[in-house]
Amino acid sequence: MADTHPKPTLEGEPDSKRAKIGGEDQTYTLVLLRHGESEWNLANRFTGWVDVPLSETGEAEARAAGAMLVDSGLTFDVAYTSVLRRAITTLWRSLEALDLCWIPVHHSWRLNERHYGALQGLNKIETAEKHGADQVHIWRRSYDVPPPPLADDSPMLPANDRRYADVDPADLPRSECLKDTAERFLPYWESDIVPAIKSGKRVLVAAHGNSLRALVKHLDDIAEDVIPGVNIPTGVPLVYKLDANMRPIAQEGSVGPLSGVYLGDAAAVAAKVEATKNQSKAK
Ligand SMILES: O=C(O)[C@@H](CO)OP(=O)(O)O
């Protein structure tokens, strides 16, 4: 009997329909998404590795981020997130909006927020009143000055948390500066996320303000004295175009030292960035 099924072949197809993964002219789209507002963003408390949920506003921001992604026509093959629920829930809400709940989702502690050490749980304005605004700015945004570490008997030590049972205890922080966060995140970027992007998978990374600052610093090669001025807003997709060497391609609409472009209203994004920057300033 004659085989009536069409043969799935690209032979004879125009070039535009062929997969051209890996060529020098290959470009890739990567989307970064900071979680929506958490309960501790709302309460203005240093959060770090404390696993707080999204606030009501954060839930709405996460759904809105999903809607923005739908409107932009972007879609994804795989997602990466941390082991903290504010990023995970944000990813879920976005994937629900995109009708992509089925795609593989990889969780790694290496995508966690920067560990805020002994500041975790403290109010940012009260901490500035006690230690001075300059000191708090250094703890929040300097590249290489970590906040004071957790004490030996702190219940917040990651070693006490079952989710880190498989992590080498030597890798578990008691406090981190951005440089430390970059040093534990970038190996995962290189070993897992870059190969996925280069294989042609469209990647969504849902993470945190400072783990994403570590990533954009790396992508855009932002200087150590410039990165303190970079703040990433909650719940706004940031779209990067990358070349075959994972270098960002300049795009219209990018802001400051970032080559990525935020989706949504530019003025609203700028207001959110400003609010993040000013969290430790008395109103
Ligand atoms: O508290 C935190 O973990 C982070 C993000 O919310 O705060 P900051 O923006 O001050 O680094």
Automatic annotation (TrEMBL):
One BP annotation, GO: glycolytic process
GO molecular function, one term: phosphoglycerate mutase activity
Organism superkingdom: Eukaryota
SUPFAM superfamilies per record: Phosphoglycerate mutase-like
InterPro entries in the cross-refs: His_Pase_superF_clade-1, His_PPase_superfam, PG/BPGM_mutase_AS, Phosphogly_mut1
Residues the record marks as site: Transition state stabilizer: H208
Entry keywords, A to Z: Glycolysis, Isomerase
SMART domains given in the database record: PGAM
Alphabetized PROSITE patterns for the sequence: PG_MUTASE
The protein's Enzyme Commission number: 5.4.2.11
Reaction catalyzed: (2R)-2-phosphoglycerate = (2R)-3-phosphoglycerate
Class of this enzyme: isomerase
Active site: H35, E113
Binding site for substrate: 34-41, 47-48, 86, 113-116, 124, 140-141, 209-210
Region of interest (Disordered), residue spans: 1-20
Pfam entry (one): His_Phos_1
NCBIfam families per the UniProt record, alphabetical: pgm_1, PRK14115.1
Family: Belongs to the phosphoglycerate mutase family. BPG-dependent PGAM subfamily.
HAMAP family: PGAM_GpmA
Protein name: Phosphoglycerate mutase
Organismal lineage: Eukaryota, Apusozoa, Apusomonadida, Apusomonadidae, Thecamonas
